[in-house]
Amino acid sequence: MRSEKEMMEIILSTAKKDERIRAVYMNGSRTNPNVPKDIYQDYDIVFVVTETDSFLADKDWIGGFGKPLIVQEPDLNDNAWGEQHDFSRRYAWLILLEDGNRLDLVIEIKEEAQKNFIGDKLTILLLDKDGFLPEIPRPTDEDYHLKKPNEAQYRACCNNFLWCLNNVAKGIARDELPYAMEMYNCVVRNDLKDMISWYIGINTGFSVSVGKMGKHFKKFLTQELYTMYAQTYSDSSYENFWAAIFIACELFRSIAPEVADYFGYTYNWQDDKNMATYLNRVKNNDFMQ
């Protein structure tokens, strides 16, 4: 795998040699001073260009960064599902290279760059041939820090977590594994993720980021809580699925009241008790009798 120095050299040399590329900036985890560096970090690079058409007419030019193993063109994929983008203003390639490096490369015209360059505080300028981009402060991840929930958001999270568990239970009872799993993983566990994030927030003064999809939970949770969180994942066994559900409930009720106390909100213990009773009755087939 090529080093960061080698990758940055080829990125910048490509830009310097091509008159169509007028500026280069970088954002993402490699600009975040609070994220430990490792070999799997993407290179999130933006080339500010005079036009995009010539880059799109012959896409083989991205091979100059190394042999791609696989490439995704998210704007093109979005088009396939009816989400339209103006390729004449901006276009992206996500490139996994043979040596293991990943380059997320965007080309955009100056008008787009003048908006986007100042829109992300995790941005550093690497090259500006024309001196048209403004000075910006040192990169900070403050825009990604955890946000405090208002009371309505807190109540909605609790209600949705508990309510949607009845759908999970019914899916298991009906032997509808795909439905039950998707309801649990994409809805219920998402509410759990939000509550965990708020719990971390009240213990850190809402001054940190837990990363995309909570990837840094382990860094901020106690070993006991993180072990519980890990146990909320399940395989396809219904026995293990039920165990994961009850652990998720235990974890939620362990932290949600603390979040409520911090903000002066109220945790609905009656809803919690009622849903716990319902889940146990479904698990034990009580309603079939």
UniProtKB/TrEMBL annotation:
GO terms for molecular function: nucleotidyltransferase activity. The keyword Nucleotidyltransferase applies. Keywords: Nucleotidyltransferase, Transferase. It holds the Pfam family Adenyl_transf. The keyword Transferase applies. Its EC number is 2.7.7.-. This is Aminoglycoside 6-adenylyltransferase. The lineage of its organism: unclassified sequences, metagenomes, ecological metagenomes.
